[in-house]
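@channel sequence for tomorrow's demo:
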Amino acid sequence: MGLRDLKNAFKRMDIRHGQDVLSNKEGSLSNQQQQPKQHSSAISSEDIFNHPIATGEPPQLFKRKNHELIPQGCTLDQPIQTNNFSNNLTLEDQTFPIWTLPYSLWLTKDPGQDFGLALNHTDANQRVFGPEPDAKVAQFYFNPPRIKSFVLSGEGFDNVKMTLHDHRKMSVTARLETQQGCVEIPLIQGMGFITAIYDKIRPVLASQVGCQDFKKVGQIDGLQKYQAKLFNQVVWSIYSDIELNLADPNHIVGQGSGTIQICRGDSPHYDNAVGCYPTSADISGAVNGNVGEYRIKYDIKGRSRSGNTIVWALPHHQEVVISGGETDLQLDSTTKGVMKAYKTNELVMQEQNLPVDVLWDPWTTFATKAQFSDSTLQLIRQAATEEVKQDVVGMANIDSMYTSGKILDKFAYIAHVCHFILKDEGLTNEILPKVKQAIEIFAKNQQKFPLVYDTTWKGIISSAEPGADFGNSNYNDHHFHYGYHIHAIALIAHIDGGWLHANNNLVYDYAIALLRDVASPRADEYFPQSRSFCWYHGHSFAHGIFASGDGKDEESSSEDYHFAYGMKLFANVVQDQAMESRANLMLAIMRRSMNMYMLYSDDNRIEPAKFIPNKVAGISFENKIDYATYFGRGTIADEWIHGIHMLPTTPISGYIRGPKFVKEEWDQKLAPIIDKIPDGWKGILMLNKALYDPKSSYEWFARKDWDPAQIDNGMSRTWSLAYTGGISS
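structure tokens (generated this afternoon):
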């Protein structure tokens, strides 16, 4: 697939049903609010985000290169986020939507209509299910995009450009600039008000839906409060420090420059929080034992009666939030259930039971200490004796960072089993040098498509063209790809710690560079903060710098947590406690969020009832969930959709995928088709079965009529027997 084909494939997912106009603006609430005292908790450790993975330039063996795609509206004096909520605004003509949640916003340049930043919110009852709307089980659902409830526009907006500033993981500031002045609009995940600060521009709030009723309903400490009821019967509250008038059903006009704040609905909670607005947000956290805490702190401007703004939290936040300020305000999110508003300037969440003890050995919730019978060890040794003979270098040195990573990880696990479980020096000495040699090809950057350092967006990417290797050079899937390499390196370094630092830190520097690209705890001049993992959504986004009408997406939940697990093990080897703590915290958050939004037990109450029977999400977008994959459904039925949420099975799999869910998925979706699957996807499904029934899983891998064609190229029979045997003995 070429670049054009890949881009067109993403664009085809931009389902544009319904075009309404949206206009929101907010003025100049300039006085700095005194911050309330920070929440105090039992966790007093230092911030785990203040410990960089490394500093300084990436290794020089990564050739420097300017990217062919230039971030639109951005100066290049800092790293630009590639996989987060705001990235659509930096791509193509900047008109693809973003989702701050619960609101969506986008730049609108539609001919003959008001230019500006459009905004909207959709209710759950507006969701479109398909392909058959009335089917008992839906394959996909999405929210109608681009309904312009309001457009933040201005007088004389006929020659406007949008620039983006202060790029952070959870926030960016947009400016609509004309020769006369500008409108500044902070865009922050979870922001309660859409705030527009007009400088030397007269505000125009356009609405393609149209105002059925517009009236002033009060005054809040110097701010005028208006209520707008649109023709779709949705009520919005608009606060302003200037007078607003309804010029016609589609236009509300301000009398001069100022600040406007808009929110969905009407509530005293809004009245008590209006006047404050966030300008940015940052993450911090601490871990103490198996308890972790993470804090989303909003930098606030302005004043409000309560001293706080409104922040919207997703369901996985709501279960563990400890910072207070809960209100009775609720709004639907696009794909993650009902959001709740908190009157606060920070959200603090505390996760219990971090997987601090899930390390190298086979593990699951019901078998936390691996044990092996003599017969199991004998069978593992037989499998290893055959698999160590394979051509590791030849199999791994291919043109894909993703596929090569799977191969390296496969053989690293074989070496690990030979050394730590079999304790067989002969087998270890046969496989270990081959795996080291294969990894060192990549560490020396001598693979078929070497990695390069992109000086434009700032990251480490493949030198292959963007349509190759799943879009790696356009920042797709870095956590998937690099997670396999990092995990493989950790496994080998656990056997031979000195190897990491041999040849002038060759392999160590390679792993550190990949980790910085994906998961830097803070942005620096060379990499953005936390490229892949979203600390607000609670999982990563795999989708890079391809514009998409349904926002960022992720397909493989399991390869997401596999990256965090690989980072955890590498940190354990190099004794980087802060990195290991961040990985453990990520895994705890993912366990909660994924079991709400991606892995569906029968008792799931977050996703629509007609979608739960699918058992897994398929592809999770910001605005849509599609029970599918980018590469098909399956040879027999839907096995690819389920398998991509399973691979690879490692000790961390059972921490995320509980036995209750795994059994339900097996009984309802997989048992009827498993015997018909002819290829490696069968092995993926059978190894996953061990998470609730390790005995039958082990027996399948242990059978005498073994067929190697029925396991994936990233799997080994050696590890499969070791894992299933270790938790079933």
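heads up for whoever presents: Residues 282-351 form one domain.
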